[in-house]
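ugh ok fine here u go
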Amino acid sequence: MGRVDAGLNSRPCLDKLRHMKKYTAILHRGEPDEGGFWATCLEVPGANGQGETQSECLADLAGAVKLILEVNREDAFRDDPAAIETELALA
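structure:
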C-alpha cells in the first residue's frame, strides 16, 4: 500500500508551496434569508466567489482569481511577447 502523503513530500510540491503567492480574501456571510457566503479578493479587483460553506466560497474565489490573473497575463504579453516578467517586492 502506498503512502497517502507521498506527493506532498516531493521536492516539486514543496517548491511550489514555497513560491505560492498569498492573497487576501474578504469573506462575508450571505443575507440571513439566503445563507451561504460570498467573498472578494483585495489584490485582484473583480474576483468574486460564493458558496454554501466557507470552503466552497473560498474555492470559488480561488478559481476566479486564477482565471483573472491568467487573462491579465495574456493581455500583458499580447502586444509585446518579449516583455520582461519579474517579481515586485513590497516593503
